[in-house]
Design brief:
- The protein is an alpha/beta fold.
- The protein has one domain (6-243).
- It has helices at residues 12-18, 47-50, 54-59, 88-92, 107-119, 137-147, 164-172, 189-199, 224-243; strands at residues 19-29, 35-46, 64-68, 84-87, 101-102, 123-128, 178-180, 204-205, 208-209, 212-216.
Amino acid sequence: MSGNDDRTFVPAEKLKQQYSCLGHFYRLVLENDREFPCRSVLGILKTDKFAGFREEIANSHSDALVIMMNPGSSHPLSPAHEDGRVAASAIRTMELTQPLVPTVPDTTQYQVMRLMIVQNWDHVRVVNLSDLRNPNSVDFLQTVSRLKEIPGGSVHSIFSIERKKEWNLRLSMNRGPIIAGWGQSPRLSKLVEHCVHSIGRERIVGAQKPGHPLCFAHPSPRNHAFKLQWLADINYQLSINSSNR
């Protein structure tokens, strides 16, 4: 399956039968007592390979690591698993435990699942430039800007200095490619620079925007043809990388 091939576009209903999503949710509490709903990590898993093994999933190596802008409207499958309050200082000192709970998949995660089918992957881990859960991109970007002025506000990003140890752990637990899909907002340029510097541009796979070396297309644009193009681009790059090993 290659090129802009609609056969790569497996329907969501079928994907839900094959894959599961598990995430860690929390509410970031800053020194001014403001709270922000967050998700620190998401695992997309082949259900028949990982059923019932949450501890093993949290500590297992991923077949690929995907980096997105933010978790959007991601939320737990059950309200009983809603996020607990975590102080910024707890994240900075690595006191944050990260239990994984069943998560409602979204269109972006379905795209990653389609990629997993072609690549024969069982486990993909997703992190974000920012942990902030907000489906409104304008409001999200405004919040990111405001957090720069708040003590401890930078810890909403795994690429902050305070969370360097956590990010290095995520990197060490990935045995495959690193795929970027954080879009092209210039207001996230500093987070993007921190991210790319920590990885190395040469290690990143993504559908790059022409003329903008650090901008990578989102996996699930609204236009169906662009969704197919993203899958084709990433699968092609992965095949080239594999043949060059």
